[in-house]
Specification:
This protein has 176 residues and is an alpha/beta fold. The protein has one domain (8-166): Rossmann fold (3-Layer(aba) Sandwich), CATH 3.40.50. It is 36% helix and 14% strand. It contains seven helices and five strands; from the N terminus they run αβαβααβααβαβ. It has helices at 16-26, 40-53, 72-78, 80-87, 104-108, 110-120, 134-141, and strands spanning 31-34, 58-62, 97-101, 124-129, 145-148. It has a five-stranded parallel beta sheet, sandwiched between helices. The longest helix has 14 residues, at 40-53.
């Protein structure tokens, strides 16, 4: 399931990655959610909701949706409803924290996103990108704490006696 398809109530709010990212951002730092596959978008969405509840005014920017040479006003006008579906609140033009999804696109197509990125400068606090693009993404967005997301993200497991929480689940065992 894609991160955009997960309902708000199914996001990994209790994941350690989200808590670490929120702490870093509240302290004035930036973070990168990195991984090869799914999970980053769900983490970024959960982070947006968590920051909103903590009194911040975040905006969730999905670069995949941005058209060539769009600025921030174009994005906000076009995706008000979609933003509300994904994070539960409307995007504010006076936001204080920007969370950027598909950050690798800003590296691959710098001219397409130049205007939007320049308008977000100084307020970008979280970026989701592929692991292999970390150095290039950091060159575009600045320094940040890398947080590696494996698979579909770290979700809290149901608390039950050993073994019962794993029924119907696929697990990975690593032998050391």
């Amino acid at each position: 399931m894609l991160g955009e398809e997960i309902p708000l109530e199914g996001l990994p709010y209790e994941a350690q990655e989200v808590a670490v990212a929120a702490s870093q951002i509240m302290g004035g730092g930036s973070v990168y959610f990195l991984g090869p596959g799914p999970g980053k978008t769900a983490m970024l969405r959960a982070l947006a909701v968590s920051l909103y509840k903590a009194g911040f005014t975040p905006i969730y920017i999905k670069l995949e949706w941005v058209k060539y040479s769009w600025g921030l006003a174009n994005y906000i006008d076009k995706y008000v409803e979609r933003h509300k579906e994904l994070v539960g609140f409307e995007p504010a033009k006076d936001f204080d924290v920007a969370l950027v999804d598909d950050g690798e696109l800003a590296v691959e197509y710098p001219k397409a996103y130049a205007e939007l990125i320049s308008e977000l400068r100084g307020r970008i606090r979280a970026v989701a990108a592929r692991t292999e693009d970390l150095d290039a993404v950091a060159a575009v967005f600045g320094d940040g704490l890398p947080i590696y997301v494996k698979g579909d993200g770290a979700r809290p497991r149901a608390k039950a006696p050993f073994g019962l929480a794993l029924i119907g689940s696929t697990i990975e065992v690593e032998v050391i």
